[in-house]
Amino acid sequence: MSVFTGKEKLKLGFGLMRLPKNEDGTINVEETSQMVDLFLEAGGTYFDTAFVYPGSEEAIRKALVERYPRDIYTLATKLMVQANGQISEEDAKKEIEISLERTGAGYFNYYLIHAVQRSNYQLYEKYGIWDFVKGLKEKGLIKHYGFSFHGDPELLEELLNKHPDAEFVQLQINYADWENPGVASKRNWEICKAHGKPVVVMEPVKGGILADPIDTVKEIFDKENTGASYASWALRFVASKENLLAVLSGMSSLEQMKDNLSFMKDFKPLDEHEMEVIKAAQKALDEDKSIPCTACHYCTKGCPMNIPIPEIFNVQNRKKGSPEFRTKREYTIVTTGKGKASDCIQCGQCEGACPQQLPIIQLLEECRVLE
Fold first, then answer.
1. Which range marks the domain in which residue 330 is found?
2. How far is Cα 183 from Cα 334, in angstroms, rounded to an integer?
3. Average pLDDT estimate for 43-67
4. For a 10 Å CB count at each end of the chain, is N or C smaller?
């Protein structure tokens, strides 16, 4: 059975990792519901959540599942096993039950083995997760299964050869990482295409970094005088590629949804001139020395010293144009009650979990100047 359901009228997928928040940090279900309404009205069908996205599965139950017929949308979620083994085989296999209870969806159109990379792929094998997920399909609890991938091309080839019945792959693809050897967006996309596996794109705006890029990149886009948002350049770059099932955008506000739909509803691929503009932006990013952290927080989940790694990296990046006293103050705020960069014991669990393959231990060492 093809993973293409025939319902996909829009290349844009609604990523549910970064939903709008209330002042108390809970998800704003009312605004999320308004975003869902606009997305469906525009022809969107693909919604993507995960067991480990706090509050996301419960929020989409209220904003989508309880408000719309089950057959007009497709819902994806994921099963996570952490590299440090904190999630046991028994707990991993219970995630589907919890996800079904949280969402009330009855079944999932797409179920993914989550964040597969060098640090955890053997644990997925050891736990028998691949066969377990195939069993869920036989039971009718899921319609299609695949995996989200944060590893190197050699591992991707190995997995697709070993598990040829995986129906699709979720990859991080954006113009910043297209030629980045650490992420290998282009090469991994080519491998999926060669294996006939459609791709779901994650992080097309790199955790928001490309929606609000560095000044040199902004200047390049601003010169075009098109009035287009910076996010639109990033999303259109990805959506112009072949062999895509959906391009996920982790929208956090009604305004972001409206912007995304403004250019994705009647999508037009980038033309030759626009591709040259993207190349100039890629060059400017290559020359920048900011830490390319997307603030996914996978690195912090098992940190024994409770170090707020993404927040520290954000302060370090902002240090360039900020007075020293402000940088010190911001660093104090983000580390109050938590670990500091100097508290790192170099256990390496963060580097094993990082989808961006960042040398976190070394970067934290460099961030000690903030203290």
1. 309-370
2. 28
3. 97
4. N
Split into its structural domains, the chain has a count of 2
Residue 209 is predicted with a pLDDT of 85
CA distance 99 to 109: 13
Rounded distance between C-alpha atoms, residue 160 and residue 177, angstroms = 22
Amino acid at position 149, single letter: F
Residues 117-135 pLDDT 10s: 988 999 999 999 999 999 9
Q: Does one domain contain both 274 and 361?
A: no
Q: Which residue has the tokens 């996978």?
A: 298
| Alpha-helical runs (H) found in 240-294 | 254-264, 272-287
For every residue of 95-157, DSSP letters joined together read: HHHHHHHHH--SSEEEEEEEEE-TTTHHHHHHTTHHHHHHHHHHTTSEEEEEEEE-S-HHHHH
CA distances from 198 to 146, 243, 273, 279, 280 (A): 10, 5, 27, 25, 29
Please answer whether residues 104 and 91 qualify as being in contact, where contact means their C-beta atoms are separated by less than 8 angstroms: no
Concatenated DSSP letters of 149-170: E-S-HHHHHHHHHH-TT---EE
* Same domain? 349 vs 255: no
Beta strands in the chain (DSSP E): 12-15, 46-48, 74-79, 108-116, 142-149, 169-172, 199-202, 244-249
How would residue 321 be classed by pLDDT, with cut points 50, 70 and 90?
A: low
